[in-house]
Design brief:
This protein is mainly α and about 130 residues long. Helices cover about 65% and strands about 0% of the residues. It contains eight helices and no strands. Helix 2 packs parallel to helix 4, helix 3 (about 35-40) runs antiparallel to helix 4 and helix 5 (about 70-80) runs antiparallel to helix 6 (about 85-95). The longest helix has 17 residues, at about 50-65.
Length: about 130
């Protein structure tokens, strides 16, 4: 990853592959899980493919071992990110890989989350049907 910062390749493909490999190593227990690493790469200002790979890893992290604050970070990105394409793709990632299963008493399944999502769908994204659905 450090070499890619000095000599970047086309579409930062090495960084994208490294992020996915790091997440796979975290899932198998070879590395300690650290969502802050992926949050740094998901910030505005990084290349779009790098951001999407980091967000994909974060969504996977939240599903398996994430805390409610990590899920709140992702919803904040859906709500406030400057790039509408990232917002839409992050919503798709959360729909395809939901943060928890229904009726399983997951630690992220909270009333605050339901109220926030309901508010987003009905009040904040009334103009964008792609984000509401």
């Amino acid at each position: 990853l450090n070499m890619e910062k000095l000599l970047p390749c086309y579409r930062y493909s090495v960084t994208v592959a490294c992020l996915k490999a790091i997440r796979k190593l975290q899932k198998t227990g070879h590395l300690p899980p650290n969502p802050d690493f992926f949050k740094d790469y998901s910030q505005y200002g990084q290349y779009q493919d790098v951001r999407l790979a980091a967000l994909e890893c974060l969504v996977d992290y939240v599903r398996l071992e994430g805390r409610f604050s990590d899920l709140t970070y992702l919803i904040d990105m859906v709500e406030n990110d400057k790039d509408p394409g990232i917002r839409h793709k992050l919503c798709r990632m959360l729909v395809n890989n939901p943060p928890f299963d229904k009726a399983r008493n997951h630690r992220n399944d909270k009333k605050e989350l339901v109220e926030r999502l309901w508010d987003l769908i009905n009040s904040k994204f009334w103009y964008d049907s792609r984000l509401r659905c």
